[in-house]
């Protein structure tokens, strides 16, 4: 059974510095390893037994890692895997971090679309064409109160069609700072399943500290 965990719009996304360790830059503990965005499959015991990379390569993990967020058996999760080659067709996992999958909601279904600024570091389609990936930098910090939390999601404002019949979904990134202090930056990734967009192409708008940034992607060519 292929099931993905979704970060639904308005679901809480807690951001803490310790949760960003897997995305460190420089010469940290993971800097000399191979990193891949993957679909991670759990076996009957709730451990990740293999992954499919965005390039379509199946990697068997030895030993099979167990995580709190990927514990349901026979389930597929979106993740970033750091590994080195173990030989014999297996890889040795060094770190496995969950990547939230954002659901696309129609903007008309919401009373307000919140677009608090953040930074868009990167946006790209996976080699398989299954995923639109976003690298985001959010401002975060402690001291915002027990209910302070940031929220991420995607909303669709409209779907238009060109004279040639190409359907384009016009999306916006939903971001609610949610009372979280903006003391320091934290990087996170979010993926969008292209199959749920329901269009041939996407124009994505992201509100940043420098203004609105737009990125366009032709999904049908992937």
Summarize this, please?
This protein has strands at residues 12-13, 34-42, 48-53, 58-61, 76-87, 90-98, 104-106, 119-125, 131-140, 150-161, 167-176, 184-193, 201-208, 211-218. The protein has 222 residues and is mainly beta.
Structure write-up:
- The structure is a single chain.
- This protein has about 220 residues and is mainly β.
- It is built from no helices and 14 strands.
- It has strands spanning about 10-15, 35-40, 50-55, 60, 75-85, 90-100, 105, 120-125, 130-140, 150-160, 165-175, 185-195, 200-210, 210-220.
- The strands form 3 sheets. Strands 1, 7, 10, 11, 13 and 14 form a 6-stranded mixed beta sheet that branches. A 5-stranded mixed beta barrel has the order 2-3-4-6-5. The protein has a 3-stranded antiparallel beta sheet with strand order 8-9-12, with no helix packed on it.
- It is globular and about 50 Å long.
- Mean pLDDT is about 85; it is low at about 1-25.
How would you describe this structure in keywords?
222 residues, mainly beta, six-stranded mixed beta sheet, five-stranded mixed β-barrel, 14 strands, 50% strand, disordered N terminus
Would you report the number of β strands? 14
Calculate the mean pLDDT score and round it.
84
Main β-sheet description? 6 strands, mixed
SSE-based structural type? mainly beta
Binned, the helix content reads under 10%
Q: How widely separated are the two ends?
A: 24 Å
Calculate Rg over CA atoms.
18 Å
Number of helices: 0
* Strand-residue proportion: over 45%
Order of helices and strands: EEEEEEEEEEEEEE
**Shape summary:** globular
Which consecutive residue ranges, at least 5 long each, have pLDDT under 50? 1-27
